[in-house]
Amino acid sequence: MNIFEEYINKITALILKNQKFLKLENLNKFKGIVVESPPSEFNFDLSCNAGLVLGKMNKINPIALANKIKDLILKNLKDFENIEIAGPGFLNLKLTNQSLILNINKILESKETYGKKNSNSTYNIEFVSANPTGPMHVGHCRGAIYGDVLANLLKFNGNKVTKEYYINDFGNQINNFAKSVFLRIREIKYNEKFISKENLYPGEYIIEIAKKIIDSYKSENFNNFDQSLKLVKTESLKHSMNLIKLDLKRLGIEHDNFFSETKLIENKLVDKAMSYLKKNNYVEEGFLEPPKGEIDKNWKKTKRLIFKSTLFGDDTDRAMQKNDGSWTYFANDVGYHMDKVNRNYKYLINVLGADHTGYVKRITAAVSALSKNKTKLNCKVCQLVKLYKNGKPFKMSKRAGDFISAQDLLNEVNKDSIRFMMLNRSNDVELDFDFDKVLEKSKDNPVFYVQYSFARINSLFKTLNKKLNDEIILDSKSFMLNDNEINILRKVFEWPKIIETASSKYEPHKIPYYLYELATLFHSYWSKGNEDQSFKFIENGKIKRIETLAIIVLVATVIQRGMNILGVSLPEKM
RNA sequence: GCGCCCUUAGCUCAGUUGGAUAGAGCAUCGGUUUUCUAAACCGAGGGUCGUAGGUUCGAAUCCUUCAGGGCGCGCCA
Length: 574
Known about the structure:
Elements: H1 3-17, E1 35-36, E2 46-48, H2 50-58, H3 62-76, E3 80-86, E4 90-95, H4 97-110, E5 122-126, H5 138-156, E6 160-167, H6 172-190, H7 204-216, H8 225-250, E7 257-260, H9 261-266, H10 269-279, E8 283-286, E9 304-307, E10 318-319, H11 329-342, E11 347-353, H12 360-371, E12 376-382, E13 385-389, E14 392-393, H13 406-412, H14 415-423, E15 431-434, H15 446-464, H16 483-504, H17 510-531, E16 538-539, E17 542-543, H18 546-566
Parallel strand pairs: 5-6, 5-11, 6-7, 11-12, 13-15
Antiparallel strand pairs: 1-2, 2-4, 3-4, 8-9, 9-10, 13-14, 16-17
Helix pairs in contact: 2-3, 6-7, 6-8, 7-8, 10-11, 11-12, 15-17, 15-18, 16-17, 16-18, 17-18
The chain binds one RNA strand through α2, α6, α11, α15 and α17.
């Protein structure tokens, strides 16, 4: 249930029925008319801009029109005890106690599903897809959490979601990775000094992987790289994917499907995609202009297969083949996305890091071409994470191998804080992540703040010897909400709207913001009892007013739903 | 040179299908604990929404200009 939706429907139906009386010729499908919550200083439950919007369309004074609509509503709908015209022509509406009770009961009944925006579509979310040449670093965590929470959110609404990881286990970097492991094996086994070179991976984890391989293959001599390549490669990949999966698990993330680039090629999916695109004249042999950026001495103007991605909004056409005629990384990815398209998802989402911004247009173009514009690929880019420690920037350099891994982070900070903090920003702004702040147990740290409100609620129920899901019966004769309660209730009414915008725009960060605001209202109400005895909830071991209990259960319900979607735990006691 | 993102209080940021007096947290200053968890609460100060135009009853939000910051710009992955 969504109270705003409910009343916009009632009000627009009423206006439609009385179109002639209101002298409205143009309704334009009520575009732009909304019911929302008014700014808190007005002390009303709902606000509607019908007078403003329809007034403009029909050239009628908005305040006069709003007044007429007000009379109509009061005469025909019994839900409101008071309506006022405010500002340039807003209708501010106050619900009767009767309808407040009705709406509270609806939420109490819907509990598990409160806020759900019913939908039954299918989604594929590709996220993380970190190169399997080493463990995840902190930067990967942001996209990982973003993708995971997006999946939770879409699932909450009833969609089928596949969480997918594309393993780039093909190409030069994997060979370099295998070579690094091979040389470390030689170092351990034969005391050959490992000399770090440009294309090799220096990290400590390479040694760990080397040791594991030596243990598992005691009879192997590892004398010749070419001979050992296949073994070392598969084994190294297995171990580093395990490292990544372990990190993901510690973050509370589990993918449904791991898609291997090597298998993609073995199954000739790229060739299939290419022949499809050729048939439609989206790919043909040709020449490209040299790149505009840095000069590349390996660049050659030779004939090769070109994808005409400019037909689908890209800035330039893209090469599908390298100098030696083999497929480019992009061509492989096109093959992969052909497979995704063929799996018939309604929506495809790719979560990318900031360093892949330049990739968005071409892959989006590819999906348009592959699906004849039927499947929409949406690429969401997560901006950089800037690390701080003691308020000072913490630099990472991948080259020297001194980057901060997800493990380092997880060893210092618990998963709940990482998840909440990484989501506490819109994905398209840079995020400052301070190791120290995230460990603080105070209002600075929003995770604790929200968790604490839930712990307080639980402690209250413990004192009352009641359970959160015990039935609550409100008596309409004596029903009365105080200012704190009505403010909390109005916030609770907004929850479905938060879910709706967060999921339709793929902006999960709205959830932590909202939960923080809700927790603030609750803490504020709670603390009132410290200043004024009469605001204590409990007297002689019993709740003073049943309304208070109802409101508090609503808060707990929404916090549970919200934190569940965020994948952050809610201790009952802190 | 081009593309994407960003510019809102001293700091970090919410707020964009155009709406009411632009909001939080931190920091600063002042207050609250015999009684349901002070990991909390209450109060005060703090703004030319980067610049200049435009669209209209109305713009932080839409369009254009310019400036500043970030990321990227391969036939690497």
